[in-house]
Amino acid sequence: MTQSPPTALAGIKVLDLSRVLAGPWCTQMLADLGADVVKVERPVAGDDTRHWGPPFLRDEDGNDTREASYFTACNRNKRSITVDMAHPQGQALLRRMACEADVVVENFKVGGLQQYGLDYDSLKALNPRLIYCSITGFGQDGPYAERAGYDLMVQAMCGLMSITGHADGTPGGGPLKAGVAVIDVFTGLYASNAILAAINARHATGQGQYIDMALLDVGMAVLANQAAGFLATGTAPGRAGNVHPSLAPYQDFATQDGNVLLAIGNDGQFARFCAAIGEPGWAQDARFATNTARVHHRAALLALMEPVLRQRGTADWIALLEDKAVPCGPINTVAQAFADPQVQARGVRIELPRGDGLPAVAGVANPMRLSATPVVYHRAPPALGQHTDEVLEQFGLDSARIEALRNAGAI
């Protein structure tokens, strides 16, 4: 009989009080690495994203199930229980669970869990080893601490939208959000990193700690080179469409039948590109010989390149350049990306069986490939409250006690 490989976070227990995206993305990362994540949801309603549709999952006949696909993006490998934390017995139950947990993750408003006795100070007194991660829009202090924070408004506030989209005065110009809630996703990733760091620190100290994660902080952090450029010069970057501010040519180009993306990052790649298209002299031209020169003379370079690239189709350019170590590729739709042979070879699409005659849930594989402690997919995104009885029994509650809690409205 084949045994499952060991997981990196085997034995780590996570009490997940979060909902929507940033918190659940964090806890899904921990669950994928082997942590036992118990997702606590509101009775009847559950996580908000269960209702964020369309699109919805479909049954075997292709009909909408009213189960929003959004929820499935960030809740696999978890067990769902329903607990009313506004109910005194529900609060007592969650405190009991926190006593045995390694990690609590929550994304309520600042101070919102104190009234329930589920804040960090209250739970730390019961479990000093507890690692407690709070995710809010603006952090636990500062003039905006009490504000609600959402991905879209943080994309706007942190400056991301000011550098995303076509420049003012060009067709379609103006600020744009990213096509994915990237601040939420990045916050989930930063939060999971912070939790792993705190787990490692606990090995040395025996003590847990508090983690304060703010979407705005993360939004500022992921400005990366754009922030560094502003801090170095005092000049705020602007929108430039798909043009890279510090590299050239590094953008999309129109072809005979569509578009091709060139991502030339050094002078050697540019020289190979020029040779491949029959224009080796461009690489010796003083205006284009170095990346800095190409950035300064971008308009002149594009005036030469654009008519040449329109002479062939996208696939022809990729076939010509890809074996010359010149980074290039198509601009795919999501459907085309999933159909790409490299994506398929890497097993990026996964199928998570649900049992009970329900169709499997399709998902995207975790990109972390660990050789000794790989990610394991052992649970599809759970139905609301699917594991309530199972989890409470593990905490020593018998069926009569569970039924009494249910009758009282606590679960």
UniProtKB/TrEMBL annotation:
GO MF annotations, alphabetized: CoA-transferase activity
Organism encoding this protein: Comamonas antarctica
The protein, known as: CoA transferase
InterPro entries attached to this UniProt entry: CoA-transferase_III_domain, CoA-Trfase_fam_III, CoA-Trfase_III_dom3_sf, CoA-Trfase_III_dom_1_sf
Pfam families the UniProt entry points to: CoA_transf_3
Keyword flag Transferase: yes
Keyword Aminoacyl-tRNA synthetase appears in the UniProt entry: no
Gene3D superfamilies: Crotonobetainyl-coa:carnitine coa-transferase, domain 1 (3.40.50.10540), formyl-coa transferase, domain 3 (3.30.1540.10)
